[in-house]
Specification:
The chain is mainly alpha-helical and about 210 residues long. The protein folds into two domains: about 5-120, DNA polymerase, domain 1 (Orthogonal Bundle); about 135-210, hpI Integrase, Chain A, CATH 1.10.443. It has eleven helices and three strands, in the order ααααααααααβββα. The chain has helices spanning about 5-10, 15-30, 30-45, 50-65, 75-90, 95-110, 115-120, 135-145, 150-160, 165-170, 200-210, and strands spanning about 175, 180-185, 195. It has a three-stranded antiparallel sheet, with no helix packed on it. α2 runs parallel beside α4, α4 packs across α6 and α9 packs antiparallel against α11. The longest helix has 18 residues, at about 50-65. The protein is elongated. The two termini are about 45 Å apart. This is Tyr recombinase domain-containing protein. Belongs to the 'phage' integrase family. Keywords: DNA integration, DNA recombination, DNA-binding. Pfam families: Phage_int_SAM_4, Phage_integrase.
């Protein structure tokens, strides 16, 4: 386990743990309380997704605790050293590093410090090709759950291209069985969209709804 991981528990992404870190920074870092309040107000006003607000706030908290001072008081060499430490740490994901950079960039732009924002490294989007299952693999996958509810949800996620968080927020009223479509509300970046509901999945959903009456 890395020193960063061990000392601050930064990889624990539960909201309660993040709140504990923020409270700790408010006590230990001069001026942090006002900075994080302004940061969260601005990022919320710009209608960023809750997950983004959480990740960026956490990244600002972490670097503040690391140096025991606000990012406004950090020298460029300190920021570079910090980012280098994150990049070298094999326990931390590329997404974690990305949030650290983007969080700092947003923070500096709040205070009109564009020169400091653009000094931060540009990040490449390494898009990986998706793994495509064979028909035989899909059959085994969908037959694995023993309960009808689990089979239907798994099939719905795959066929409609939904995120797990989107399925968790899905309501029966969002499903239009007559038009064979699903209304996905306020998903990533607070955007809504419609997706196709296949006839096969529609039958499974109706069977589950009529039987379980959720």
């Amino acid at each position: 386990m890395s020193k960063i991981h061990k000392n601050y528990g930064w990889l624990n992404s539960r909201p309660n743990s993040a709140k504990t870190l923020i409270d700790k920074a408010k006590r230990e870092v001069p001026g942090f309380a006002l900075h994080i309040q302004k940061f969260e107000e601005q990022i919320t006003i710009k209608a960023y997704a809750k997950s983004t607000v959480f990740s960026y706030s956490r990244s600002i908290t972490q670097i503040s605790l690391y140096f025991k001072k606000s990012p406004l008081d950090l020298e460029p060499d300190e920021i570079n050293s910090y980012l280098f430490t994150l990049r070298q740490d094999k326990d931390l994901s590329d997404t974690f590093f990305k949030h650290a950079v983007y969080g700092l960039r947003f923070f500096y732009r709040i205070y009109d410090l564009e020169d400091r924002a653009i000094r931060l490294p540009n990040l490449k989007n390494n898009r990986k090709l998706p793994v495509v299952f064979s028909q035989q693999e899909l059959r085994r996958l969908f037959k694995a759950p023993q309960r009808l509810k689990q089979r239907v949800l798994l099939s719905l996620i795959y066929s409609a291209g939904l995120r797990v968080s989107e399925v968790c927020k899905l309501k029966i009223t969002d499903i239009d069985f007559d038009r064979n479509q699903i209304h996905v509300r306020e998903s990533k970046n607070n955007k809504s969209r419609y997706v196709v509901l296949s006839a096969y999945i529609s039958q499974g959903l109706l069977q589950y709804i009529n039987g379980a009456k959720p």
